[in-house]
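Researcher: Next sequence.
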Amino acid sequence: MGLPGFFFRMFADKLILGAGMHRFEKAHLEGYRRAVLDPRRGPALEAAIDKVKSAGPYEIGGATRKQVPRRFDAGHQRAALLLHEGLWAGYEGKIPAEARSATFIDFCAAHYRAVFPLSRWLLTLQSDG
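Model: Next structure:
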């Protein structure tokens, strides 16, 4: 549960897939918040989010708080990222024609590649303990 992963859900009328962490464990949440405010890591997260957003119709999710946690500066340039208690990027759309063929694997892999920059950033948090 402490590492980012991929998710896939297919319903009769829609497909949802993506990558990241839906909810941080308490220890990971503190590390995430420190990284958001870090002068090197914070901009790297913004760059990862920008890369995902520019790649397609992806939602960045996990912002569940209504206010920045008390001990953090609500006026910080990345304060909106402190509203996250999880961080993920996902695609939601109608069932594509590819779902009825062998190319569906390629369709999904392309979306996973597009949202992976967010997971890559999350993995750097794990590598530093």
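Model: The first strand starts at residue 5 and ends at 10. The chain has one domain: 5-127.
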